[in-house]
Specification:
This protein is of the alpha/beta class. The protein is built from twelve helices and 14 strands. Strand 2, helix 2 and strand 3 form a beta-alpha-beta unit.
């Protein structure tokens, strides 16, 4: 009798390697591993080798960097999305893509169940599972962290040793934080960072130079946009993934994109996170600059009002929900005229806008000039002000009575 198949989101790290063994031994599954290359670099090859050595039934390793950028990161950036005003959603935006491929691979391999390594305290369990259920209401999910008794690092290490799960010996005295990387960002959470008063050590940061050690001379760059999406850097046309890679390189060099925040998790607790989002930070500044001359005032203000809700939906895992799709349609409709070039100065942790131009610009030199013009009658402002003041005058008189 054949075993039931399960598709595991597999990073190759200690936790998901133990999960692979646990699903085989304790749950009697044939495990199919799925590793998504979304820009985490050096983790991919070891994941394949470990999966082979541990007897995975099938192994899927896919380069999703372009799909991740074009179909997830760029649409989110059209909204200029920031969760709670600061977090650029680097982890949250990766989860729906991984969840989608887990379901698709399950269908391709006749598996009935998927599994992930997210803990029962975090947001990722919600994001993975909401994505999966939205795409296949009948899919089954196994979340080991909500079931097993391996609830400490000591127990995990012991289980790995007893079951020949390969792991580097320095894991016994592992890094004092949890780390997750993709093409948009790298995050650090937990352990030494759990006290929000403690400043992270400089040697924790894997990508960016310290702003103090960044070059002493600024670097000027240009980013060209078409319908709201970046298409070229310094006049060089690049694919979406290559655009973000190049912006990351520039941000890393100049110490751009570090933030240290306390955020409100969807499951109810506050969590301290430290993030490096070098390319995304540059892109957000450049996008807002080009939008400032190409989008109507009231449309821009309405878009900014929608942004917090959009960011919250992404953060909470509702990428495939109808309300996010409705907001996306509205946001995308604002981008038809967001074309042109932004010029930026990168210097010691700062992204400074120094110019913007567009063939679809709404900026009118004729109207804003301080010199004589023939298109604007300044006397018209008197009536405009009086009409807008009318309710204030009436209200003031009423209060006096």
């Amino acid at each position: 009798m054949s075993k039931e198949k399960i598709v595991l989101a597999y990073s190759g790290g200690l936790d998901t390697s133990i999960i692979l063994k646990w699903l085989q031994k304790e749950k009697n599954y044939d495990v199919i591993t799925f590793t998504a290359d979304i820009g985490q670099a050096d983790e991919i090859s070891p994941a394949k080798e470990k999966a082979i050595s541990m007897g995975a039934k099938e192994i899927f390793i896919e380069d999703l960097r372009e799909e991740f950028t074009q179909n997830y990161i760029f649409p989110m950036f059209r909204a200029n999305a920031l969760y709670e005003g600061v977090y650029m959603l680097g982890t949250a935006i990766a989860r729906p893509l991984i969840g989608k491929r887990l379901v698709e691979i399950a269908h391709e391999t006749n598996a009935t169940t998927i599994a992930h390594g997210a803990t029962g305290k975090g947001n990722d369990q919600v994001r993975f599972e909401l994505a999966a259920y939205a795409l296949d209401p009948n899919i089954k999910v196994v979340a080991p962290w909500r079931e097993w008794e391996l609830n400490s690092r000591t127990k995990l290490i012991k289980y790995a040793e007893e079951n020949q799960v390969p792991f580097p010996k320095d894991k016994k005295g592992e890094q004092p934080y949890s780390m997750d990387a993709n093409l948009l960002h790298i995050s650090y959470e937990g352990k030494a960072l759990e006290d929000p008063w403690i400043e992270p050590d400089e040697d924790m940061f894997r990508w960016t130079k310290s702003p103090q050690k960044a070059p002493d001379s600024p670097e000027y760059i240009t980013i060209e946009f078409n319908r709201g999406d970046p298409i070229a850097i310094n006049n060089e046309k690049l694919s979406p993934g290559k655009i973000l890679e190049k912006l990351n390189q520039l941000g890393v060099k100049h110490g751009i994109g570090r933030i240290d925040i306390v955020e409100n998790r969807y499951v109810g607790m506050k969590s301290r996170g430290v993030y490096e989002t070098p390319g995304g930070t540059i892109l957000l500044q450049a996008r807002r600059a080009i939008e400032s001359i190409t989008i109507d005032r009231e449309v821009a203000h309405l878009k900014d009002e929608l942004m917090p809700k959009y960011a919250e939906l992404v953060y909470n895992g509702y990428w495939f929900a109808p309300e996010r799709e409705i907001l996306q349609t509205a946001i995308d409709s604002t981008q038809a005229n967001v074309n042109g070039v932004t010029r930026l100065k990168l210097y010691k942790g700062n992204t400074i806008v120094t110019g913007r131009k567009s063939p679809t610009s709404l900026y009118s030199n004729e109207h804003v000039t301080f010199e004589e013009d023939f298109v604007y009658n300044q006397f018209d402002a008197e009536g405009f002000i009086k009409l807008n003041a009318l309710r204030l005058k009436i209200g003031k008189n009423f209060i006096k009575k």
